[in-house]
Give the backbone structure.
Amino acid sequence: MSRKPVIAGNWKMHNLQQEAIDLTNGIMQELKSEDKALLPEVIIAPTFTSLYAANKALKDCGCGKVRLAAQNCYYETKGAFTGECSVEMLKDTGCEYIIIGHSERRQYFGETDEMVNKKAKSILNNGLVPIICCGESLEQREAGITDYHIASQITKALRDLTKEEVSKSIIAYEPIWAIGTGKTCDSVEANRVIAMIRNVVKGLYDTDTANSIRILYGGSVKPATIKEQMAQSDIDGALVGGASLTADSFAQIVKGAICNSCV
Ligand code: PEP
């Protein structure tokens, strides 16, 4: 089964509004001559404060090659939740995807597997796509519990979701020790873990669902690494942090995921 590749840029806490507009326009300029049909699904995830501006830049261009994501959401629909944004609010700014369970949110903001599951449900109920992050720490890897830990994160994140909902969702496998460190996980090992995640989905649902869900690799992805990563059987794309902050490097990664060049 062929799955459309996805390249998503997580801008983290970077870029004022004008910088976000400039970066959005820069990415679209870099992709201008590319055939839209061959491009992967290209996603950018600015901060909440730049979503409106980035969305306006995307609409003004009208090329439809780049889509918008938020980096977080809250699962309640409205109410006294100071500082939070509901999925409906993010949809209203043009978001089609929301990243949840990123290791930085788990580490610094106490996001739990149960919260990730509630967020996934709220995102899907609103017709958006969750990008569900999972990944092991260096200590967990050295203790030999990588697969156990990730299987547990995924099982809890997907709890009570239907197979139709899971088929539409995206998972990002991001070993914590590879995020922002410049140390990319070996492609064969990343592919092994991603195949293991697909097998967990198969066990929870069925073969079709496991073959439909897109599973990305994230952790120090660079223009120089993407082709080898995309050549793996189970890696469907990348969640990119640092290298998504300049139009040139992000566009090179996007171009590296064009199916024709995945060899
Ligand atoms: C990320 O933040 O999701 C990430 C993978 O970051 P980086 O590419 O900088 O390692």
The radius of gyration is 17 Å. The chain has a mean pLDDT of 96.
